[in-house]
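Bench log, entry 3. Co-assembly request; chain sequences pasted below exactly as received.
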Amino acid sequence: EPEVTQTPSHQVTQMGQEVILRCVPISNHLYFYWYRQILGQKVEFLVSFYNNEISEKSEIFDDQFSVERPDGSNFTLKIRSTKLEDSAMYFCASGGGVETLPYFGAGTRLSVL
Amino acid sequence: GNSVTQMEGPVTLSEEAFLTINCTYTATGYPSLFWYVQYPGEGLQLLLKATKADDKGSNKGFEATYRKETTSFHLEKGSVQVSDSAVYFCALSLLSGYSTLTFGKGTMLLVSP
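Structure output for the full assembly:
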């Protein structure tokens, strides 16, 4: 069964450092998403991406965050200068269309120290 | 705004016990409702869904009925197994597609033999 792959499974970084979270979506999917879950809180939508541009973003997704599809297979989330409150599980998802539910990856746990 | 509220976990049950995980929602329109499950080390997987009032979603012995009058979508299973141990997320989507999901916090289920 096709799956969305996220690496690394756990990323530890120092406050103020830049991190890049990587995702390999399902190969024929065109819609890509990032969600996050701070420990003990809800899973929150961050951003959706289609046709090489952001199609929707939440108020959480400020200038500190950026997304990119650098090649035909990867989808990345960059956090420019990490803060303690960025510590969370980050989920990548991909979908074949707006009318189809996305498939989620297992998540990357980001710990900012 | 839109939100999903789930019962706090963990829910601890013995094998073959009856399961209920409560979920209520608030939405500015007419949502589609979902239950996702996350097994250890895996991604969020769609468990079941319902798109209109009184619809019952079902899968793998789990059921949930879309109750518009009580704005609820409670998850039930008649007889749980150890392999059902996971985190369960209730979610809604308001768009005609599914590009943005609003999730609850998740409820951990632990089933012992």
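Chain B has no helices and twelve strands. The first strand of chain B starts at residue 3 and ends at 6.
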